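Email to the structure team, subject: Succinate dehydrogenase [ubiquinone] iron-sulfur subunit, mitochondrial model.

Hi all, the expression group asked for a predicted structure before they design truncation constructs. Nothing fancy, just the tokens so they can compare against earlier work. One-line instruction: predict Succinate dehydrogenase [ubiquinone] iron-sulfur subunit, mitochondrial, return tokens.
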Amino acid sequence: MFRVLTNTTINPEEPNKKPYLQDYKIDLNDCGPMVLDVLIKIKNELDPTLAFRRSCREGICGSCSMNIDGRNTLACICKIDDSSKPLKIHPLPHMILLIFICNYKMIEPYLKRKTPTAVGDKHLFQSVEDRKKLDGMYECILCACCSTSCPSYWWNSDKYLGPAVLMQAYKWIVDSRDEYTKERLEQFRDPFSLYRCHTIMNCAEACPKGLNPGKAIGELKGLMANIASMPSKNSSTVGTKYK
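Reply from the structure team: attached below.
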């Protein structure tokens, strides 16, 4: 039998009881190979009160991100390789969802245009070269595995935007179709939102999609160094291909 220890958080019916690890025993011969398969089996057969988020089961939606044996990852793509020791599952550390959403909202994650064009009037085409600048960023699924692996984000999540949001910000800044490059960069003229990144690079190590948020943040810092000489309207020469 395979042991699974899941973190049980605050029970509203017992507000004074501290979180604890709940112990389950599972027969892996009657279960799928992924951690998410185990969690679904526990919920369906052993404990209907077990709560967790999931959706696609293909590593695409980012819903099932959690800390598994000390590593932030997606339960749907995390295979159980060693059944000789218990599996410990916790929520993502220091993850305050409201702060994460507010940080993401702050970067205005959508195309912004200055050229007056009626909605749907024409396509916003990109060259192959401009499109390649977005490689390694558009694949981000906002699972927050990177941000919740970052010590700077743990202690400053209300001020430091974190790897996930900063990589998304860089994606919109280097998108040739967006015309608010300089204005977007102006948001980072403070000591915390961008510059609390100390290139620890836990973010790249944790990303289940194999992306490199730390490199995107480095590119963003480079753009900030040249912001004074940057024209207000976006240019397709801004940014570099990175992965």
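The first helix runs from residue 35 to 46. The domain at 2-90 is CATH 3.10.20.30 (Ubiquitin-like (UB roll)). Ping us if the truncation boundaries need rechecking.
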